[in-house]
Amino acid sequence: MVDNNKFYIKDLNLYYDTLRALKDVNLQIKSNKVTAFIGPSGCGKSTLIRCLNRMNDLIEGVKINGLVAIDNTDIYGDIDVITLRTKVGMVFQKPNPFPMSCYDNIAYGPRCQGVKSKTDIDAIVEKSLKQAALWDEVKDRLNKSALGLSGGQQQRLCIARAIAMEPEVILMDEPTSALDPIATAKIEELIENLKKSYTIVIVTHSMQQAARISDNTAFFLSGEIIESDTTSNIFTNPINKKTEDYITGRFG
Ligand SMILES: Nc1ncnc2c1ncn2[C@@H]1O[C@H](COP(=O)(O)OP(=O)(O)OP(=O)(O)O)[C@@H](O)[C@H]1O
């Protein structure tokens, strides 16, 4: 397979015990693009995004079959899951900074990976915060608790923490749903800049957000991907009637 796909998903099924939450999912996720997952509540968006760095492994009773490949390597094959999660970082719905200083939040991962030099860690902290568009706001309070930041700043700190691990992919599960419109706009602008360096997959409940920031969109319904295409085709020229009904607000 020679292409610009970061992920290749083929006939993927996921069961939570007897509940089949993903049904024969087929999807390709392009490198250095933003891919949005949209669809009504409970349709499997978070379940699929969690498959991309094997976060579902942590849930008891989960059974998976089918293929999820990153750069042509089967991530459910014989691979090191810690390395996978380093390559595929994740940002969650609710900002979840560690209860420590802003500096230590960013330094934590690189230190765990064995980076010891203070000069190196300083450089990683500065670079990550700059890329997350947070440096100017926190450079004078690096040693203060991250819990004192606003929600929007905390979410950018979490993005900086993911960036510090030098991932290739950043998964974002509803990253702005707990934020106000101004903080949301900042994260959206950030995502636009980050896609030059990273592949981004985002779950969002906001169709406006998907339309604003993503290049490609996959529409989910009851565990199936009904349609996936460029975002402009999904929103202006959907092929499937169900997609059209959803994006025009006729259901969901
Ligand atoms: N840990 C779990 N154990 C059992 N069932 C689960 C678990 N997580 C999700 N499910 C079920 O799997 C289905 C898909 O859930 P998922 O969270 O992936 O949907 P979603 O599209 O992300 O929903 P939302 O938009 O509300 O976050 C739902 O029926 C949900 O109840």
From TrEMBL:
Alphabetized CDD domains for the sequence: ABC_PstB_phosphate_transporter (cd03260)
Organism domain of life: Bacteria
Biological process annotations from GO: phosphate ion transmembrane transport
Compartments, as annotated in UniProt: Cell inner membrane
Annotated keywords: ATP-binding, Cell membrane, Membrane, Nucleotide-binding, Phosphate transport, Translocase, Transport
The keyword Transport is assigned to this record: yes
GO cellular component: plasma membrane
GO function term, MF aspect, one: phosphate transmembrane transporter activity
Phosphoprotein recorded as keyword: no
Limits of the ABC transporter domain: 7-247
Pfam families documented for this protein: ABC_tran (PF00005)
Principal localisation: membrane
Membrane topology according to the record: Peripheral membrane protein
NCBIfam families: 3a0107s01c2
Function: Part of the ABC transporter complex PstSACB involved in phosphate import. Responsible for energy coupling to the transport system.
Identification of the protein by name: Phosphate ABC transporter ATP-binding protein
